[in-house]
Amino acid sequence: MKKKNDRERTFLVMTIPILVLFFCFNTLPLIKGFLFSFTNFKGYGSYDWVGLRNYIDLFQDARVGKSYLFTIKLAVVSTIVVNVLSLLLALGLSSKIKFKSALRGMYFIPNILGALVVGYIFNFFLLIFFRLFPKCLEVWEPVCWPAQAGPRWLLWLCVHGSPLP
């Protein structure tokens, strides 16, 4: 038998746990769900094997046919609309028009807004933390902000934008 080198061993050590987790939390539930589709299981209690009766009932129901038709129509229409709008936007961003910079800005704003909202949320939580935590520390060790705060003063400065507490 061929002896494995360190790189192959590291690969196996990193890959096998992920494969086990994937099987346990993705593949196994998928297989169990597929097998339960052939039973009359309600999610609790006992169940009996009914075979293809669930699928026959499913495809004989008119509501299911209408929902499949609606889903197919929605997929086709949304694919066409998204591709047409994407092509128009790409043409607008790469053409020589007067408002090309404004169009690029409007296109890029949603990317910035997500990070901005997350920043404000963290600012809110850190503001609460920095207002409550020094008061808790005063029980054990009096802290004079920012003179004796050490590295905490830098965090305060980053969160609030001013060195004053």
Give a verbal description of the structure.
With 165 residues, the protein is mainly α. It folds into three domains: 1-60, no CATH class; 61-95; 99-165. It is built from five helices and no strands. The chain has helices at 6-36, 53-60, 62-94, 100-137, 151-160. The longest helix is centred in the last third of the chain and has 38 residues, at 100-137. It is extended, with a radius of gyration of 30 Å. The model is unreliable at 139-143 (pLDDT under 50).
Q: Give me the strand/helix succession.
A: HHHHH
Number of distinct beta strands: 0
- Major sheet details: none
Structural class by helix and strand composition: mainly alpha
**Average of the residue pLDDT scores:** 82
Q: What count of structural domains? A: 3
What oligomeric state do these chains adopt? single chain
Note the main attributes of this structure.
165 residues; mainly alpha; 3 domains; 73% helix; extended
What's this, in brief?
The protein has 165 residues and is mainly α. It contains 5 helices and no strands. It folds into 3 domains: 60 residues, no CATH class; 35 residues; 67 residues.
Question: Which helices and strands occur, and which strands form pairs?
Answer:
Blueprint (H helix, E strand, L loop, with lengths): L5 H31 L16 H8 L1 H33 L5 H38 L13 H10 L5
